[in-house]
Amino acid sequence: MTAFKSDFLNTLQERGFVHQCSDFEGLDALAAKGEATAYVGYDCTAPSLHIGNFLTMMMLYWLQQSGNKPITLMGGGTTMVGDPSGKDETRAMRTVTEIEANKASIRGVFAKVLRYGDGHSDAIMLDNAEWLTKLNWIEMLRDIGRHFSVNRMLTMDSVRLRLEREQEMSFIEFNYMVCQAYDFVELSRRAGCRLQMGGSDQWGNIVNGVDLGRRMGSPQLFALTTPLLTTASGDKMGKTAKGAVWLNADQFSPYDFWQYWRNVEDADVTKFLKLFTILPMSEINKLAALGGSEINEAKKVLATEATALLHGRAAAVEAAETARRTFEEGALAETLPTVEIPRGELEAGLGVLAAFVKAELVASNGEARRQIKGGGLRINDAAVTDEKMLLTSANLTPEGVVKLSLGKKRHVLLKPA
Questions:
Q1: What is the pTM of this model?
Q2: In the predicted model, is pLDDT for residue 333 greater than 90?
Q3: Which domains does the chain have, with CATH numbers?
């Protein structure tokens, strides 16, 4: 393990964030002096960021903790173009109204992890729509486009893989890397930004910015990427039966977020404690030494600390207590995820398949049928055996809800309204 001068790179290396860097020595010297202003870009393609974005937010967190300045860049402009990285087809075009709504919904999550203000290491938030939407087409071609080699652009993974698979790539997507590269140069001019960070799938786009900065007379710029998130079994991290693990509480509840971490594979616990908590390494090493059934205690710590970081300590403690009461005492916790349904719908008889789909415990009636055959669905802790069963008011518990369960760990309350 390389010994760096800066706390920033030492911390990132020790915790497993580092994948590639354009110049470790130069970046280390900059960060050691507290002069490494760095940014991560976040496109506004959905109303919430997801767990992959949480990883880069943690990189910004440790940057700030080491006395350097983070920038969160909202992709109001680049979202209009659409990043082709990792995509087999062109992204659906978002309207300006959709982008603005997503941007407004996303903004608040950053302040849960970063400190914003006017101080030396306080974070700032910018939006690339401020400059990208004002570029003159001819001036952009002459001043920026002339620095890009089409030959090199065709070798970038985001382009090359699409072409090798004979999948169409639109002209607008082809220009995404130009927009992202220009962002880096513009942030260098506006905010003294010298470092761009991102996932390893962004390496080509980031080094394009480093190269464009060199060609356009910027101070030396740096690129730093983190490994893409995968589980110990090799699966892409961040997916559940309900879909993506979103960061906004209205998209993915603190309880579901807590449960996600509680249910990770044993082999992933130490890695995720390093990446998604701010626990000292000494404490993480103690938890890493736990074996057998004791690993479950480490998972609970992971779940509580990761949830506290994003949703606050009170929400994390409540989620942990809900889980304890539900699984250890068999109690019906009021803080379980709840889905409201019209009272008349329940009184008329709600099909059991539709009920589990409404609760988002399964994605379709077909999946519900398969779960019933395998004994995986329960209502008020009783196994469902008849796929034609109807839920009525008679199924309400004394608390006035119907408890739906998928397996032993996922529960939702149906509440008539």
A1: 0.81
A2: no
A3: 7-230 (3.40.50.620), 254-334 (1.10.240.10), 338-416 (3.10.290.10)
